Amino acid sequence: MMTSVDTDLIRVLADPLRLEIVTLLAQETLCTTHLVEETGARQTNLSNHLKVLREAGVVETEPCGRFTYYRLRPDVMESLAGRFTDLARTARATADANLKRSCP
Fold first, then answer.
1. 3-state secondary structure of 14
2. In what order do the strands lie in the sheet with 67-72?
3. For residue 22, how many other CB atoms are within 10 A of its CB?
4. Distance (Å, whole) CA 39 – CA 46
5. How far apart are CA 15 and CA 24, in angstroms?
6. Of the four, 20, 44, 53, 58, which is 20 to 30 A from 76 by CA?
7. pLDDT number for residue 4
């Protein structure tokens, strides 16, 4: 069963720019300047999306001089992936057993 935390995280990741940010951060730790270059998004827009990702616990920050670097938290992504794996396993078992509720 999906929890409210799972659904909140799915909503956070449903935004195309946030998903692009997460994809980039899966490959390397980047600062806002790098993310602006990679995504073409405006710095203020990008900062707002990074704030949402940070508050959701998807990314963590590392100050480095006047820059802030962002790193993806793999444990959060693994947890969400595990939930989807569980759903897929349940759906497969249901389909294989041809389980369906009869109509009244």
1. helix
2. 30-31, 67-72, 59-64
3. 20
4. 9
5. 14
6. 44
7. 67
If we measure between CA atoms, which residue out of 62, 76, 21 comes closest to residue 43? 21
- Quote the tokens at residue 57: 């616990």
Separation between Cα atoms, residue 22 and residue 87, nearest integer Å: 23
DSSP annotation of 102 reads P
State residue 3's pLDDT score: 67
Q: What is the pTM of this model?
A: 0.83
**Cα(80)–Cα(2) distance, integer angstroms:** 10
Amino acid code (one letter) for 80:
L
- List, as one string, the DSSP characters of 46-72: HHHHHHHHHHTTSEEEEEETTEEEEEE
Which tokens is 74 given?
């793999």
Q: With beta carbons less than 8 A apart as the criterion, state whether 59 and 70 touch.
A: yes
Confidence of residue 42 (pLDDT cuts 50, 70, 90): very high
